[in-house]
Design goal:
Layout: H1 6-13, E1 25-29, E2 32-35, E3 40-43, H2 46-49, H3 58-68, H4 81-94, E4 98-103, H5 106-121, E5 128-132, H6 141-146, E6 163-166, H7 171-177, E7 182-187, E8 190-191, E9 197-198, H8 201-214, E10 217-221, H9 235-239, E11 248-251, E12 262-267, H10 293-308, H11 311-329, E13 334-340, E14 343-348, H12 357-367, E15 370-371, E16 373-375, E17 379-382, H13 390-403
Parallel strand pairs: 3-15, 5-6, 5-7, 7-10, 10-11
Antiparallel strand pairs: 1-2, 2-3, 4-12, 8-9, 11-12, 13-14, 14-17, 16-17
Helix pairs in contact: 3-10, 4-10, 11-13
Bound molecules: pyridoxal-5'-phosphate.
Length: 413
């Protein structure tokens, strides 16, 4: 084994693309992770909204081990049972007819949506997709082109053509942006990286009407907010319980609790040729690993365990509890609490110390054993596993109260 520390290995051999914290984690159990020195942390970041079942869930670990000992990979030249079963389970859970494509990440799931939209628009020469400011859709060239944040695009020109960004929750501006090239509207029903900004019910309803009126696809990026995070399988239904249904949706992150699985679904609305879900026909799209038996078994395990353990309800209840208690603390350091289910953003005022409020707070919380995720300049996100207990929620609240209390609030604006 190398004599270098983990930090040194990263410094010398791993590309410096991330602003990482110097914290080397070595194991996890439930909502807790431990660093290499044996210090425990309450994990309210869950790998950026990924570990829906927390760490080392015994049933998931067993199902994965069984699948690993049976068949890990075959390529998509052949059929494997777990992929078929997972596609059916997803279609059943979202309660919309259609079909699913499997890939390996959120950015890749969104690439599938862009290609679906272009294929849908090809007969009429339409290709432009409207997305929104402050959105995040991934780090591929397509993803950064779709993302409504300048910082991800810098120095990567020329970008992929055909994306325009409108102000989020501004229906009039969105309508004004529709032209003869427009083919689709893509949004995160709850913006995640942008700082936990939910779409309003009126916006979602209005977008559906615009899409119907102009024959556009309404596409949701539920990579961060989907599959239970907001307390519903579908985040958009946490905002509008019925009456607004998308034409296509992308997922990743929480769908397999840390095993790299992405997916997108398309509905069965008719197009000029075949139903939308059959538009990407043989040879039009693909990936070697996508939906292999190992990752599909992980997805099946996670979605089944979310059902068996009542985790949608848990996410709703404990999310409400966290938001209520955070608001009741009335701390001067906290400007605003936003969110739904276990997708919570705490917007901070200016804090004493070097750097952005989001980073100052994240580091201070980490130092006393609570992991949270910074977002932009002044928001920290609570994205814990969906199976946290009330006592873990209260433990996190006590730490937040202590850390965001007195010592950090000298420079309140
Ligand atoms: C809404 C959204 N879409 C897409 C992505 C990209 O997913 P991935 O990092 O798995 O490529 C993310 C990642 O944070 C996301 O939050």
């Amino acid at each position: 084994m190398s004599a270098s520390t983990t930090s040194e290995l990263y410094r010398d051999y791993v590309m410096p693309t991330y602003g990482r914290f110097d914290l080397a984690l070595s194991r996890g159990e439930g909502t807790r992770v431990w660093d290499e020195a044996g210090k425990a942390y309450l994990d309210f970041g869950a790998g950026i909204a990924v570990c829906s079942l927390g760490h080392a869930h015994p049933k998931m670990a067993k199902l994965l081990a069984n699948q690993a000992a049976t068949l890990i990979h075959t390529s998509n030249l052949y059929l494997t049972r777990p992929q078929g079963e997972l596609a059916k389970l997803i279609v059943d859970l979202v309660r919309l007819s259609g079909k699913v494509f499997f890939c390996n990440s959120g950015a890749e799931a969104n690439e599938g949506l862009y290609k679906l939209a272009r294929k849908f628009g090809a007969p009429t020469g339409r290709y432009e997709i409207i997305t929104f400011m402050n959105s995040f859709h991934g780090r591929t060239l397509g993803g950064i082109s779709a993302t409504g944040q300048e910082k991800v695009k810098m120095d990567f020109a020329p970008l992929v053509e055909g994306f325009v960004h409108m102000p989020f929750n501004d229906l009039a501006a969105t309508e004004a942006a529709i032209n003869s090239r427009t083919v689709a509207i893509l949004l995160e029903p709850v913006q995640g990286e942008g700082g936990i900004n939910p779409a309003t019910p009126e916006f979602l309803k209005g977008l559906r009407e615009l899409c119907d009126k102009h024959d556009l696809l309404l596409m949701f990026d539920e990579v961060q907010c989907g599959f239970g995070r907001t307390g519903d399988w579908c985040a958009w239904r946490s905002i509008v319980p019925s009456g607004v249904e998308p034409d296509a949706v992308s997922w990743a992150k929480g769908i397999a609790s840390g095993v790299p699985l992405g997916a997108f679904w398309a509905g069965s609305r008719p197009t000029a040729s075949v139903p939308l879900c059959d538009l990407l026909g043989s040879g039009t799209h693909g990936t070697t690993y996508g939906g292999n038996p190992l990752v599909a078994a992980a997805g099946l395990a996670v979605l089944s365990i979310i059902q068996e353990e009542g985790l949608l309800e848990n996410a709703r209840n404990l999310g409400d509890h966290l938001i209520r208690e955070l608001e009741a603390m009335n701390l001067p350091a906290i400007r605003l609490v936003r969110g739904m289910g276990l997708m919570i953003g705490i917007e901070l005022n200016d804090l004493a110390g070097e750097g952005l409020p989001s980073i100052i707070a994240t580091k201070a919380l980490m130092a006393v054993g609570l992991l949270v995720i910074p977002s932009g300049e002044r928001t920290i996100r609570l994205l814990p596993p969906l199976n946290i207990t009330k006592s873990e929620a209260n433990e996190a609240l006590a730490i937040l109260k202590k850390v965001l209390g007195a010592p950090l609030r000298e420079k309140i604006t």
